[in-house]
């Protein structure tokens, strides 16, 4: 049912956006995106998706309490990684001039299924369920028209799709993991509608009743109420605390069954595999299929200064930037080039090379990846930058995706497929953050061989071997390869095996063959 309220998604976009913020607060808008503590892995060691988002469909009559039920589910679920409430009101069709005239005269039936773009609704929901990004249409209720702009959305673990026709379309029903119908007495729905429209929307009772009798009530009898037969659960429109609790218990159990944790085995498999009595021999650089910066005297000198505990802070910053510049310059070899003829100032034609790409952008894995950003910008100026905030869970060390701020060009699949992305991070130790970052880019449609991972340091015995098996076409360039990793704790948080809270688990690099001294990026 169309309302004059201008609804929109809780958008934290700015120029680039994503998984929203780190707090849980309900809003008056129908489309809401909420995040609590971050999104855990949704893929397996082979890099393929192994769990979809959990989708709940909530249908019912106008003013039956659908939005209230959706919000109560969110409140009761509590500490869930990421939740999106998606309203079908955003998917009203784009209207013709004749339809607009009827709409402004209150003679257009917005309660009929034909008023909603069901295929677009199903497509957006299918993308979100499959952990891909989607662009939700924006509908202006004051103009009775769908706008050209869209709202970018990515990353919810739980999606609640609510609307009077949420269970009407078979394509939509096939996407739901749980189907709910909110059943409410017709007199109570009418009373709620009158109170709402008079208080919140400044309407007159006469107009409310006329619209209700002409469009709302017939649509409920003919199209909405019959869909209750498809519901898994019938929830009363009032006094429904028990039903909400039962629903949330089921959702929590489903999410627990879909959880995936393999970070330890990714990091040091011999510690968690009883069949391996001792660590396997370290793989050689060629086996890792890495592009290592040529060990020139200049590079060796920079690495020596960076590994030394006596190097002043200002020198560390200067040489970090210098090494980052060298890494990005070498990484440029992975970009496509094509022949290009130019005319010199003396009139001589010379055949050279030029970049043959539509889009280039950079994405740094915060926070350590930011140290490469300045060197990256020295090589590629005026290139859009984005970031991924990935941190380890203090209890088990599993990576959590807390925030996604990507360049605009990656938000749409059509442009993302033609984009080349430089992924920046200080190190690849366990490979957990790198794994998640690459998976995020693939979810957006970036081709695997269009991802160039630039990093200072790689642990030979860490997760790099598993990472290369999962994503063999990703280009990885580093300055050095160290032989071992050691697990330790930093002060600040409790964790598994550290109940007293003396610190959090981190991985430290041990020097590899031919290196100068130990080097750790924390």
Automatic annotation (TrEMBL):
Span of domain Phosphoribosyltransferase: 294-487
- The organism is Dendrothele bispora (strain CBS 962.96)
Q: Which NCBIfam families match?
A: PRK05480.1
Give the superkingdom in one word.
Eukaryota
Annotated metabolic or biological route of this protein: Pyrimidine metabolism; UMP biosynthesis via salvage pathway; UMP from uridine: step 1/1
EC number(s) on file: 2.7.1.48
One matching Pfam family: PRK
Question: Keywords, A to Z?
Answer: Kinase, Nucleotide-binding, Transferase
A Gene Ontology molecular function term for this protein is:
ATP binding
**What is the recorded name of this protein?**
uridine/cytidine kinase
Keyword DNA damage listed? The answer is no
Tell me where in this chain the Phosphoribulokinase/uridine kinase domain is found.
55-237
Q: What lineage does the source organism belong to?
A: Eukaryota, Fungi, Dikarya, Basidiomycota, Agaricomycotina
Keyword Kinase among UniProt keywords: yes
Signal sequence coordinates:
none
GO biological process: any one?
Answer: UMP salvage
Concerning InterPro entries, the annotation shows: P-loop_NTPase, PRK/URK, PRTase-like, PRTase_dom, Uridine_kinase-like
